[in-house]
Amino acid sequence: MSTFIGSYEHNLDAKNRLFVPAKFRDALTSTFIIKLLPSQYPCIQCFSKDEYDAYAASVLEPYTDPVRQRKKQFELYAGATEVTVDAQGRIMIPTASTQRAKIEKAALVVGMGDHVEIWDPATFNAYYDAVSAESIAYEQASEAEESVSLERKANGDYLPG
């Protein structure tokens, strides 16, 4: 399994083709799966075929009810597309996917550990800022809670549970 890190900005060309950085292309292989993520993360995910099979199996595994499993299958497979990298290192992205992900011209290709995501740069930056603000607030709250706990312990107010 490859670890995808970093981010690279490239433009879609007039035929909706996007250059995939060589660093990512090598691990994804020449033919891989792209999938629109229909959730709070408006982006396109990219997986090697093997990684996508493993991802899909892990998502479907907890669903034993056929109706719920069917909905998950629809979510996993209906919006997925197999793409092949051309000689210039580009992939063709379906127009419906770029429209739903709000990618018009510029695209940010982002490593996400076990997969790659393609984002509209402004949407990614807004999401990144929100996640960063949440992380900072969480860290500050944790530090404040720890400080109060240490102060209580130092004052003898701490009773082990």
Characterize the structure shown.
The chain is of the alpha+beta class. The chain has helices spanning 22-28, 49-60, 66-78, 95-100, 121-154, and strands at 7-11, 17-19, 31-36, 44-47, 80-84, 90-92, 106-111, 116-119. It folds into two domains: 7-119, Transcriptional regulator MraZ domain (Chemotaxis protein chec); 121-161. The strands form two sheets. The chain has a six-stranded antiparallel β-sheet with strand order 1-7-8-4-3-5. It has a two-stranded antiparallel ribbon with strand order 2-6. The longest helix is centred in the last third of the chain and has 34 residues, at 121-154. The protein starts with 6 loop residues before the first strand and ends in a 7-residue tail after the last helix. The mean pLDDT is 87.
Essential attributes:
Chemotaxis protein chec, two-stranded antiparallel ribbon, 8 strands, 161 residues, alpha+beta, globular, single chain, six-stranded antiparallel beta sheet, 2 domains
